[in-house]
Fold this protein.
Amino acid sequence: MKLIASLTSPFARKVRVVLAEKKIDCPIELDTPWEPATRVPEFNPLGKVPVLLLDDGSTLFDSRVIVEYLDSISPVARLFPQERRQLIEVRRWEALADGICDAAANIVIEKKRPDIQQSSDWIARQHDKVTRGLMALSRDLGERNWCCAEVYGIADISVGCCLGYIDLRFADFDWRAQYPNLAALALKLQQRQSFIDTQPPA
């Protein structure tokens, strides 16, 4: 088994955090899909990371698929609830956090284009998604210690990787002042070894 990943991808980081929490030893092959020499499309037709190469030669892609698979192959530190209603709630948290990351990544990609080709309307629309998404995360978290059922799991990992990506890409966005409950959650997560070991490069 091998993970193809970029160190700055929040989706790849989510998988790397899960690997660490589950104590699964998995080598990582670094690949950036935007580089001309990338091999990612050979393994994922969508050209995105992360991709998990299984021992039988098959591949899994989309971080949500990969982390659920990883949780199923090891009984260590179960990250997905078994009860159906809680499972749906956890997947909603994950979808919201991933959606914020998608919007943030869209801004980054758009700003790489020449100034004359950039769409300010498109960038503003993605910013609105990020803002509304963070507001929803904060509202849903409320005063709880963890995102779902007062138990650390994939919802918290997803939100933590999302907040870390916002820090990486928008250093001047002071979301902590607006959402102190998210800031408190992020602080707890940053102290976990799995988050320390997967901190993206500046």
User: Anything to note?
Assistant: The beta strands are 2-5, 28-30, 51-53, 59-61.
